[in-house]
Amino acid sequence: MKKSALQTARAAYLPKLPEAIKAGVKVVEGAPTQSVADQAEIKELFPNTYGMPVLTFAKSDEKKNYPAINVGVILSGGQAPGGHNVISGLFDGIKAMNKDSRLFGFLLGPGGLIDHKYIELTADIIDEYRNTGGFDIIGSGRTKLEKEDQFDKGLEIIKELGIKAVVIIGGDDSNTNACVLAEYYKQKNTGVQVIGCPKTIDGDLKNEMIESSFGFDTACKVYSEVIGNIQRDCNSAQKYWHFIKLMGRSASHIALECALQTQPNICLISEEIEEKQMTLDDVVNYIANIVAARAEQGNNFGTVLIPEGLIEFIPAMKRLIAELNDFLAENGAEFAMIKKSEQINYIIKHLSPENSAIYASLPEGVARQLTLDRDPHGNVQVSLIETEKLLGEMVARRLATMKDEGKYAGKFATQYHFFGYEGRCAAPSNFDADYCYSLGYTASLLIAEGKTGYMSSVRNTTKPASQWVAGGVPVTMMMNMERRHGEMKPVIQKALVRLDGKPFNYFVSQREEWAMNTCYVYPGPIQYFGPTEVCDQPTMTLQLEQEGK
């Protein structure tokens, strides 16, 4: 297989590890934990894995003789840069403890466990994928592990291969499933451990113990490079407003981080819009007023960053979508039989009066997009809704009205972009390469110490990698109850942008200047070789959050 010069050079990169886990370790246990909310319900659902302590690995001179173990690994959900390094770290970790340990990869996600499709990951295979992007070493999938017959089917191949532990690399839903699996296997006394690793480029799987999900750093750097390129073009031609939609369905972490890196004229933060109870008209007026103010200075150009989940955070739209999700969960089969030309009227007739009126007022294209096929969790696929075009067209209409009123005399031309898949499989930044390798290595230590129902945790990540703190956090600690498919289910609580947090407050302190002046920053491509301040820096979000700690 032909390789690029970068692939060849990156294969030789040796990821950095926390000093404390390079040799012998001892486990330091914290206090018992409880879930972030709904404690009684979560405890009842997870009696065998609830309340476990947070774990930290400290350096130890004690030499331990570990028996050889067989471990299974699953990549679950959407791709994120660094997944291959998690697997590399896990492989190196179990081999360092005992060279006869073996690693099996289940193919194409959790479905591979259920269908007994796997390969053994040997050193020859692992070495081909070190420091590379993508999940193609074993593939990924979105099969949900939630039924006992799935657990039992998986247990058959686990027993056949002599696997002691399964590592599930995924986001909040995948790690929720990992915890359900851990609980079931412990309840049945199978002797099988389950460990999770925090993955999602959206950045919404984080808390005090999980400072960042892996892939977020790389994806934001990829998007910021392209935003910077667009801004350079924007400032050169000076004739377009660029509406740029970014990944981030449930939280605006990517949009905020890219704004901090590139300083656009406008960045919408979904959580703020919800907090302020803004309507769609409020959002449109906000953008239109900045466009008009820049036009007065002769600047008929600019950039707008939009999180893909924005429309769900507008309170009236959120209520509409929630009712639509529940209605289509119950009546999906009947809806599918309705003629396409009648579907919108069918929905209008069956919604509550308030939501029916809102739905009827939407442009036909957006109304149809809200009723397209649901995602695996029964929710509308907001990435299919062209929010950037909806906003651009509505701003154009608003500016036309302002022109008639004598309040606007500029020119308004638009370009539209959506950056999503472009960031999911990039070669990981040095930060993600190191972080992911450390997460995988830490997972091997959690397995060696007999733990289950834990997520691998690496903290103190704004410091040099040698000072990072490795350990484990009970998955139940992050859980609450949420409505899914019309039923209340235990899930890991999503981390939204904190409006009282340092990253958002810094953004607020700067955004008026960025709106009126052209303050663009051009980050350029990810740097892998060179000064540490260029190559190894974490996200600005992480730096601001950890400031003073």
Question: How would you describe this structure to a colleague?
Answer:
- 44% of the residues lie in helices and 15% in strands.
- The chain has 549 residues and is an alpha/beta fold.
- The protein folds into 2 domains: 5-215 and 428-490, Rossmann fold; 219-424 and 501-525, Rossmann fold (3-Layer(aba) Sandwich).
- Helix 3 (83-97) runs antiparallel to helix 5 (123-129) and helix 8 (216-237) crosses helix 9.
- The protein has a 9-stranded mixed β-sheet with strand order 1-2-13-12-7-6-3-4-5, with helices on both faces.
- The model has no long low-confidence stretch (mean pLDDT 95).
- The chain has helices at residues 5-11, 39-45, 83-97, 110-114, 123-129, 148-160, 172-187, 216-237, 253-262, 270-275, 280-296, 310-313, 315-337, 340-350, 353-361, 364-369, 387-404, 430-448, 502-516, 532-535, 540-546; strands at 25-29, 55-59, 70-75, 102-106, 118-120, 163-170, 193-198, 241-246, 266-267, 302-307, 414-419, 454-459, 469-474, 479-484, 487-492.
- It is built from 21 helices and 15 strands.
